[in-house]
Amino acid sequence: MMLVDQLATTPSAPEPSKGEQTRALILETALRLFKENGYDRTTMRAIAKEAGVSVGNAYYYFESKEHLVQGFYDRMIDLHTQASRSILADEPKFAIRLAGVLDAWLEVSQPYHEFAAQFFKNAADPASPLSPFSAESTPARDAGIGLMRSVLLGSTAKVDPELREDLPGLLWLYQMAIVLFWVHDKSEGASKTRMLAQRSAPMIARLVTLSATRVFRPITREAVQLFRDIGWFKAR
Known about the structure:
- The structure is a single chain.
- It contains twelve helices and no strands.
- The chain is mostly helical.
């Protein structure tokens, strides 16, 4: 059974309201049309018609196509968080936790691989609200950083105290690099991306461990200060 089906049939999950069902229908319809026709060629009117709702109703739930993609971001972070619960609850080793969370993201994102390539050219524009660094993407970005914070805080990793506050954001940037590779990955089942995640996670873990050593601590702190000074995590 696929993850989405499992979540939908969880006994403890409350029955979605009519409004939530309508919102989900519009979002699902939009994702399908984006995949079939391309993001740029899909209009809100076409989405509303295909979903069987009025154009006004579609705009009531989503102010624009960009807001539909933000809805997709929100859904993905929810699915990612739920798919990561088991590894975060049971595994104390930082490298395994990180690799497991990355694998969970690849698992829940795989059905949308083709769609991701469709809108990436828009998301890659720094001025686009679809950019993961935009102000509009703040809720999803903060949630993603929060998930990486859980990876760190629940682990046995020894980290330089000066790095601990900023490390979740840096780990999120690392995940964004994985996502970028995934968007362009044409291998079967994104197998190359999975290999990249599984083999790079232990390397990242070793770098984190080295950050707490006397030799590497000054370099680490200088790098962290650089990220602070350029305001990398501020919405632009």
